[in-house]
Amino acid sequence: QSALTQPASVSGSPGQSITISCTGTSSDIGTYNYVSWYQQLPGKAPKLTIYDVSERPSGVSNRFSGSKSGITASLTISGLQAEDEADYYCSSYTTGSTWVFGGGTKLTVL
Amino acid sequence: QVQLQESGPGLVKPSETLSLTCGVSGQSISSGYYWGWIRQPPGKGLEWLGNVHQSGKTYYTTSLNSRLTISIDASKTHFSLNLKSVTAADSAIYYCARLKLANSGRPEAFDIWGLGTMVTVSS
After folding, report:
1. CB atoms B59 and A96 under 8 Å
2. Quick check: B48 and A96 CB within 8 A?
3. pLDDT of residue B55
4. Beta strands A35-40 and A86-94: pairing type?
5. CA–CA separation, A80 vs B121, rounded Å?
6. What residues in A contact B48, CB-CB < 8 Å?
7. With A95 labelled, which of A27, A36, B28, B47 sits at a CA distance of 20 to 30 A?
8. Which of B88, B100, B80, B111 shows the shortest CA–CA distance to B33?
9. pLDDT tens-digit map of B64-116
10. Which 63-92 residues of chain B touch chain A by CB within 8 A?
11. Which residues 6+ apart lie within 8 Å of A36 measured at CB?
12. How far apart are the C-alpha atoms of A4 and A22, rounded to whole Å?
């Protein structure tokens, strides 16, 4: 169960769009559509932001969207706002009914 | 409104067993869901530890080398984590979480999280 690969950091200016990638293997992202994304504000618990690759839970802004191609999933945040500054983690269901997280990406809003 | 609350000692000695519980309110544990534990060492990323189903069936990360046991209490009001032979590397914030279910009944994402509890392993 190797961790999914995410960039350590991304940044963008208010109003811009950013994309965070999450690369796995054929044992996780490449096979299953149970890819989720979590936003973690400083000192807080993670919050589910995207599930099933591209579904948004109730209450999550439609500025957040997800996609997948092959073994790579992506989270896009459009119309970047200062409140979006946080750590973002991807996660995937894997073979053997286990789960794996990415290493996390720190989003800085310039 | 479903809420989860972790509880347990904040300090554990090396080689001892770390025991945490996750209290579940607003929903019965016996409602078909899966329940999980995730940890986060200070300044680092999230690590999935394991899940337990209401039936008692468990799934664990292979990285903990059989040191981990997750179970549902007979009262069905909370579930627990026991990690044996801890070292400083086990120091982390430990979160419990609920896995939401797809229409197929397969768990699809961790949708409700506890606030987390910091555990330090030190003599």
Report:
1. yes
2. no
3. 86
4. antiparallel
5. 39
6. 1, 91, 98-101
7. B28
8. B100
9. 979 999 999 877 789 999 999 999 999 999 999 999 888 888 889 999 999 99
10. 63
11. A48, A49, A50, A51, A52, A90, A91, A92, B108, B109, B110
12. 6
**A31-49 pLDDT tens trace:** 999 999 999 999 999 999 9
Listed in sequence order, the residues at least 6 apart from B77 whose beta carbon sits closer than 8 Å to its beta carbon are B23, B24, B29
Encoded amino acid at B113, one letter: W
Which residue of B lies nearest to A33 if distances are taken between CA atoms? B108
User: What is the C-alpha separation between A100 and B113, in angstroms, rounded?
Assistant: 16
Q: Read off the tokens for A10.
A: 């991304």
Query: Across the interface, which of A46, A51, A93 has its CB nearest the CB of B46?
Result: A46
Residues across chain B: 123
Of B82, B100, B115, B86, residue with least CA distance to B6: B115
Contacts within 8 Å (CB) and 24+ apart, A77-85: A77/A12, A77/A17, A77/A18, A77/A19, A77/A107, A78/A17, A79/A15, A79/A17, A80/A12, A80/A13, A80/A14, A80/A15, A80/A16, A80/A17, A80/A18, A80/A109, A81/A14, A81/A109, A82/A14, A82/A109, A84/A39, A84/A109, A85/A109
- 3-state SS of B35-101 is EEEEEECCCCCCEEEEEEECCCCEEECHHHCCCEEEEECCCCCEEEEEECCCCHHHCEEEEEEEEEE
